[in-house]
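Now read this:
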Amino acid sequence: MDFLKRTLLAASFFYAWQLTPSPLQAAECRLGRYDEQVTVTKVYDGDTVKLTDGRSLRFIAINTPERARKSQPAQPLAEAAKQRVEALLAGNKSLQLRYDMERKDRHGRLLAHPFLSDGRNLTQQLLQAGLGFHITVPPNLSLLECYHQAEQDARLQQRGLWRRAEYRPQPASQLGAKDTGFRRVAGTVSRIGESRSAYWLNLGRGFALRLPKTDIGYFPFPPDSLKSKTLTVRGWVYSTRSELRMNLRHPASIEKIADNESSN
């Protein structure tokens, strides 16, 4: 078996559990100990809260629909995600936090895994309800598989956003300059380039996936093995003068690898 076939086989094995039920679906996503106890004073949305000491806390491993801001309307289920967090905190507004490898995001917000007073993982509760997408941002990878299974439980049962057409994968070729923010995107890798800091996977003209070389160790296959494959990916789309881009930092952000676009 040549190297390309071996790497693609590894990729297939890695993603074989994407829609496969697992005993972890019923398991609690726990980490054994906590690093800090805090109290919530305000719920901004489904994945961010304000603490009594003034800090903003962003939950690790989840992205929930955006609420209305400025000229942008609220995304479907944004209010439902916020209300679910408020309901879970109704009896006791304290959270137990467990930190991961990075404690702050690029906006200066605190990053942690949040646990309710009864020990339940708040992120897991939202994922199982279909009120958010599991996201994977290295190096904060604790509980990756458990969170993934929580999402798959909601996906298989078509809960929340998984039954909404607005959140289905969008063809990369149909996105325009204003189609930024968190999205699920599908497209065929037409070209693979390389710069000093990253590999670039073009999904046709006008859209590129940026795979930082600092994250290449997380991938069980080389970028070249994805040439001509059709990918379904998730992440934040941002716009440059020449194209739309998405950072691809971990293989868990690839939902599907297929041989051609007919398998979307």
